[in-house]
Design brief:
The longest helix is centred in the middle third of the chain and has 14 residues. The chain is 60% helix and 0% strand. The termini are far apart. The C terminus is likely disordered. The chain has one domain.
């Protein structure tokens, strides 16, 4: 009999957990849809972080979306551009 592999801790878990907690309380804005899609991709098939994976499923269900619909909507959002522009400030990008 082979032992089940032990769940791993995702290196970004501590940064992502508060984002997921926030999404659980939020509505499906363009930014939140993009965040949900990004996290779904990050944790898809990951052998651990089961609580995050379950909460991402809950968010999809609460917002009345399938994963296919989520990805279709976020592709359209990203095609318009600018969804993450406000995250970086000029100071962070200024190397002079």
């Amino acid at each position: 009999m082979t032992a089940q592999p032990k769940d791993q801790e995702h290196p970004l878990y501590k940064r992502d957990r508060p984002i997921v907690d926030n999404l659980l309380l939020q509505e499906a804005t363009d930014f939140n849809l993009a965040e949900l899609a990004r996290l779904r991709i990050r944790y898809q098939g990951f052998p651990g972080a089961r609580d995050i994976q379950q909460d991402l499923d809950k968010i999809l269900q609460r917002w009345g979306l399938t994963e296919t619909e989520l990805f279709a909507r976020t592709r359209a959002i990203h095609a318009q551009g600018g969804i993450y522009k406000s995250r970086a400030t000029r100071e962070e990008q200024d190397w002079n």
